[in-house]
Design goal:
alpha/beta, seven-stranded mixed β-sheet, nine-stranded mixed β-sheet
């Protein structure tokens, strides 16, 4: 790793709020200045300021080239992994409380009590305290004699957050320059428990002793640099390592592509997945996390699924909601005043019958993934809209729905036209306060819903 000299460090400090491309063209060549390194550091800090604000506030951090910064975990997703780890390893009493407080544990949740799962809130609060470890005796007890290994270290963002909850934390990475970078940055972050190992993660796994927690983020590019998604096409192949991982750790957290079908992934791991975490931020699915662990019972148990979109969090027992759709079992309400669109993590989970049950709403139709209700729903995990009018696709209905409107935000769900096609047909510009949804209702009727955001 190239260490910045005084001239380069001073240049970075003076210009880190400026446009990197302009600096590359206009910067004066000063003796001793390593301009390419300085530009990498400025670009890296500018990304970190938004993506990793805690890292950006640490003056000693050295950043990798631009592409590594674009691909690394955000602070939100890295912190969430730390939350998962600390909750998994929490005392048994905490775990029991977490499960017993679940929204569906007593099936008492009603329409008047729409809520995020209490267990999801418990996860968040437990791990927040675990992440903000202090020098108090209580925090010493929390991490005492706990050991974790990150077998795919990379830039080290995930490792830096996971390590805070362990007394021993080992980072393993094959590329020497990343190891040097990690060694420098972990020291700058004050992670004295971090141990950096330059070597092959699979070989290290084979020879290491048991630990409490293992983390893997398999590389999702093949030898030609093309992007891959299937678990067996990633490096390392976690399917091949499954039994070894289970024998070497109490829990293993595997980060996978959000493009994967989580139900198939769970089935392919043959009863060893304890939890599924679908993590989104800004309503965009970022990660699919699987927690592997030894089977507690003779018969494989269905995993618990956690849907996370920033501060919107729910969880549920996947065995109780295996299909995700029960269209027809609940007729549409006569009065349809409100429309709700689930967030990205729930859309990925497909737990639409759970949403109906827990929040007292009704799916508008098969595969539409939109919900309606007569009364407003507090804390719905997604976007809410007030319905102003509903109509068909005939000219009379369209004229009534638009009522002189010249622009609208358009979305379609299970509809014969794409959003651009519908916009062209309706001759509407984009934007404004009106939100139009094209969808298919129960009974296979194609409808337009004119709404306003609430």
């Amino acid at each position: 790793m190239t260490i910045m000299n005084d001239e380069t460090r001073e240049f970075v400090a003076m210009h880190r709020n400026e446009d990197v491309r302009e600096l590359a063209l206009k910067a004066k060549r000063v003796e001793g200045l390593d301009l390419p390194l300085a530009l990498d550091q400025i670009a890296g800090w500018q990304i970190a300021r938004k993506k990793l604000p805690q890292w950006a506030s640490c003056e000693g951090i050295v950043y990798p080239p631009h592409i590594s910064m674009e691909q690394c975990s955000s602070q939100f997703t890295a912190q969430y992994k730390s939350e998962v780890a600390q909750t998994l390893l929490a005392p048994a009493a905490t775990v029991r409380a977490r499960v017993s407080d679940s929204g569906e544990s007593d099936n008492q949740t009603t329409k008047s009590e729409p809520q995020l799962s209490d267990s999801a809130e418990s996860v968040m609060q437990t791990a927040k305290s675990a992440f903000q470890l202090s020098d108090s005796p209580e925090s010493d007890t929390l991490v005492a004699r706990r050991a974790m290994v990150d077998l795919t270290g990379g830039f080290g963002v995930d490792f830096s957050y996971l390590a805070r909850g362990f007394s021993q934390a080992t980072y393993v990475e094959r590329q020497r320059h990343l190891c040097d970078l990690a060694e420098h940055n972990m020291a700058a972050l004050g992670l004295d428990q971090a141990r950096i190992v330059c070597g092959d993660g699979v070989e290290y796994l084979r020879q290491m002793g048991p630990v409490d927690f293992i983390y893997l983020d398999p590389a999702r590019r093949d030898e030609h640099g093309s992007r891959t998604y299937a678990i067996e096409d990633c490096t390392p192949n976690v399917f091949e390592l499954r039994d070894l991982l289970l024998s070497k750790s109490q829990y293993t957290l595997v980060k996978l592509s959000p493009m994967l079908d989580w139900r198939k992934a769970v089935a392919d791991f043959d009863g060893t997945v304890r939890e599924v975490h679908i993590v989104a931020t800004g309503n965009e699915c970022k990660e699919l996390l699987l927690v592997l662990g030894q089977q507690v019972h003779e018969e494989p148990s269905a995993p618990r699924v956690f849907c996370v979109n920033d501060n919107q969090r729910i969880d549920y027992d996947s065995a109780a909601y295996t299909q995700g759709l029960r269209i027809g079992g609940k007729p549409l309400p006569e009065v349809k005043n409100y429309l709700y669109e689930p967030n990205a993590s729930i859309m990925k989970a497909g737990c639409f019958d759970l949403v109906e049950e827990r929040f007292g709403v009704t799916q508008v139709g098969p595969s539409s993934h939109l919900f309606v209700s007569a009364t407003p729903v507090a804390d719905f995990p997604g976007r809410g809209f007030a319905i102003e009018a509903i109509g068909g696709m005939n000219k009379k209905d369209i004229k009534r729905l638009l009522n002189g409107t010249k622009q609208a935000n358009i979305a379609v769900r299970n509809f014969p036209l794409t959003a651009p096609q519908l916009r062209k047909k309706l001759k509407l510009a984009d934007g404004g306060p009106v939100y139009l949804f094209g969808t298919t209702m129960q009974g296979c009727d194609h409808v337009l819903l004119r709404t306003s955001k609430i």
